[in-house]
Amino acid sequence: MKGVLCLIIIFMMKYCQFIILVPCKFDSRCVCLNDTSKPFINVSCVGKDIINIPKFPPTVYSIDLSNNKIGSIPNRSFEYQINLRILDLTSNCIQVLETDSFKGLQNLHKLVLENSCINFHKLPVDVFKPLISLKHLNCKYIWFHGINLPGLLVSTLIHLEYLEVDVSQSTPYGILFDKHFTKLLNLTKLKTGVCSGIEFDEKTFINMKYLTAIDLSSCVSQKYNQSLYGRNKLNSLALGTFILPQTKSFLSLISDVKTFSSLESLFLIGSFEPNVEFNGLIFRFFNNLQIHTKIKELRLNNNYIREILPPEKILVPPRTLQILDLSYNKLTCLCIDIYNLLILNLQHNFLGNCLPYYYCTRFKNLRLEQFDLSFNVIHKLSDIMFAGHKNLQILNISNNFLSDIDFDVSYTPKLKILDLSNNNITMISNKQSLNTLTKMMGQSTFAIDLSNNVLSCNCRTLGFLQWIVNDWDHFRNNGNYKCKLDNKTIITMHNFRTIVRQFAKDCNSYSTIVICVTLGIVVFLFTLCAGLMYRYRWKFRYMYYMTKSRYYRYKPNDDNESYTYNAFISYSDEEKDFVVKECIPILEDADEMKLCIHHRDFLPGEEISVNITNAIHESKKTICIITRSFLDSYYCMFEFNMARMESIYSRNEQNILFLVFYEQIQPRNLPLVMLELVQNQSYIEYPHDEQGNVVFWGKVREAIV
Ligand SMILES: *[C@@H]1O[C@H](CO)[C@@H](O)[C@H](O)[C@H]1NC(C)=O
Ligand SMILES: *[C@@H]1O[C@H](CO)[C@@H](O)[C@H](O)[C@H]1NC(C)=O
Ligand SMILES: *[C@@H]1O[C@H](CO)[C@@H](O)[C@H](O)[C@H]1NC(C)=O
Ligand SMILES: *[C@@H]1O[C@H](CO)[C@@H](O)[C@H](O)[C@H]1NC(C)=O
Ligand SMILES: *[C@@H]1O[C@H](CO)[C@@H](O)[C@H](O)[C@H]1NC(C)=O
Ligand SMILES: *[C@@H]1O[C@H](CO)[C@@H](O)[C@H](O)[C@H]1NC(C)=O
Ligand SMILES: *[C@@H]1O[C@H](CO)[C@@H](O)[C@H](O)[C@H]1NC(C)=O
Ligand SMILES: *[C@@H]1O[C@H](CO)[C@@H](O)[C@H](O)[C@H]1NC(C)=O
């Protein structure tokens, strides 16, 4: 206890310089609040099982003795408390009060006897007489003896302004406040405590002519029957549950409202039961308030109101109204022109389905500053829901089922709090909303509440999570944000920053892996393609040129024997002499064969590759004069390979290649495919001697006939 006090003292010293909270010197059960700049101290002796009133010094300004066990207040207990202004005896059970119990308290302003089981029957009639300055007497919820406060007890308290008291029906002639109350000219405020089954009528308050604030909200099953008719000074009125039939009381009130020309606040909280039909009544009610009163604050919460007007009609509140509370009703639809309202409370209704269509404000410069739509089963809000709400500061959409911010936030530039807690938001994916919110975070006063939404935490939402971390101070209640991992585990993000940083790391390596694997696959496929291309390069080229040449000049080739040439001679330019001086004279001139010789038979102007493929295609055989320069020549090898392809793809794998080794070449210098042909015996060596040459030419002739 002392530790706590020390802490409090340190706290006080630090922040309030002059105010010191210490155990009182005169009684250690009490705490003294001593403001060094003022001559008086405030004393608090709450909940200390005190039985007798302690002795207090005369400098005491206020005493709080609530929650103790004081059973009696003997004569002169407060004799020296001439400076005492406030005395709180709440929750004691004071059985004995004597004539001089309060003697000396001539400056007391406020006496609280709430819940103190005082029996008015047993009080000495002059017990309150010394309290000549008393302004506020609270004697509600005293141990109830079924009697009303006798006017005689308080009739000397001429300064009394505020009376809090229990009322009971069991008085003769229905007069709750007897004629002695007429002396209390300054009594303007009345509030009830225990109050049940009271029929308030025009006699009830007849001895309290100057009331301006009446709070009967604690009265269950009350009847209102012209009780306050003509009270043009009445400023605020609160009523409790009406007795059945409730519309009778309501109709009487609606009619009396016409005479309440000073009325500014009206509370009908929990006044109606489920079966009350408001249609029409509300219309007259609002109309009378509009025409005859100065109504500023209207609270109609907890009233089972299902429909305030049919949805196609616009609810037009009185022009003077600033605060409208329709919370805790059953509204499914509301079409309201909020006009001059500053505060609109619609929480705990069922507006979710209707709101996007029937909110019906005129989109101009609305004055509304606080708007509560929490607990309304809202799944979605329309984009323009808050259009015109230029002055909105607190927007509460908590405890709904929103899954994103789809409404346009940019209409509300002065927003200070956007409460979206307890919704179904996994992330804000709406780009426009994100941008607007980011802009609004530029103002230090703006804050958004996303607590108790189960955010989705994975690498896809990392950007969103980092967005939160970046503007961390703009997120209210950010200690209890929740997060659902990919494996469906829900964690509370007590340590949001650390967790998000960890995520960033994990996701980074994750995306690295993804990139590497993708890259690997791409490279593999590419290599595969390249490999295949290389492997079948000749086939592709062959196909290509074949298609091309067919396209250019198509020659039917149905008869196997009808080739244009007997042979196409493929040779490198170094062997030109051999071809011109030996091949042509021997094969063409003597044997009447037809040879295709590139420097003679190729079509000028045609692409050389096309010429080659055509020549191969139109010749029965292709003879390659193999020399070292042949192997080195690009076009020779091209011809060789094309001929190979021709034999595979156009001649049913019948061999059309005929190799003539004009020089000695080591097998290891030959390309693999050529070696293969050599092994298949499709070759002949040029002998370079006369006898041999005869045999040679004979074999050639044989091959190409
Ligand atoms: C308030 O405290 C100051 C110093 O702590 C002391 O001198 C003064 O007497 C106290 N005032 C009262 C009214 O007790
Ligand atoms: C005592 O309480 C009254 C009213 O509650 C307050 O005005 C006054 O400043 C307080 N005095 C001290 C010393 O705190
Ligand atoms: C209290 O004072 C009143 C009037 O001064 C007196 O009649 C009464 O007997 C006193 N009560 C006690 C218990 O002394
Ligand atoms: C009643 O209140 C008014 C203003 O509040 C004040 O001037 C007048 O003195 C008070 N009368 C009494 C008897 O306290
Ligand atoms: C209301 O009071 C008037 C006159 O005091 C009385 O005639 C009428 O019956 C009362 N109405 C109800 C519903 O009690
Ligand atoms: C929004 O409404 C909820 C529920 O009615 C309440 O708990 C919360 O404090 C409100 N938020 C703000 C910022 O007033
Ligand atoms: C919350 O959102 C999820 C999908 O994001 C959806 O499946 C679920 O039904 C929603 N819950 C409610 C109550 O709307
Ligand atoms: C889900 O993942 C988190 C962290 O990666 C781990 O701590 C948790 O045990 C996992 N939960 C399940 C049900 O696998």
Automatic annotation (TrEMBL):
Membrane topology: Single-pass membrane protein
Lineage of producing organism: Eukaryota, Metazoa, Spiralia, Lophotrochozoa, Mollusca
Signal peptide positions on this chain: 1-18
PROSITE patterns: LRR, TIR
Residues annotated as transmembrane: 510-534
An example Gene Ontology biological process: signal transduction
Molecular functions per Gene Ontology: signaling receptor activity
Cell location: Membrane
Name of this protein: TIR domain-containing protein
Organism whose genome encodes this protein: Mytilus edulis
Transferase among keywords: no
